[in-house]
Amino acid sequence: MDRLDEYRDIIYKILSHYASIPYSYGDIKTYVIVDKERNHFLMMHEGWEGKKRIHGAIVHVEILDSKIWIHYDGIEDGIADELVAGGVPKDHIVLAFYSPYLRQHTEYAVI
Known about the structure:
By secondary structure, the protein is of the alpha+beta class. The chain is built from three helices and five strands, in the order αββββαβα. It has helices spanning 3-19, 80-85, 100-103; strands spanning 27-35, 40-49, 52-64, 67-73, 93-94. A hairpin with a 2-residue loop joins strand 2 and strand 3. The model has no long low-confidence stretch (mean pLDDT 95).
């Protein structure tokens, strides 16, 4: 298995695990959406919490130039540590939600 397929599998397994956890209140479903052609991975909530509409991305991850770019991370403890635990080196993970200036001060890749 090449690195791209390995990273796809790791991301999908992590997001699927979180998506399988039932939402604690409201009528809300969680979906994992994968665009294998462009290597984008989303986890989304959709539904109703009382009279309030819930709809939006919880996580957005992209594989770009052999690195995993975390564009948005709404998981409580973050997905980066789980990627590392799954075997992804820290220098292959970009915390894209930080500016390039701030990324240099993290343990992860700048670009």
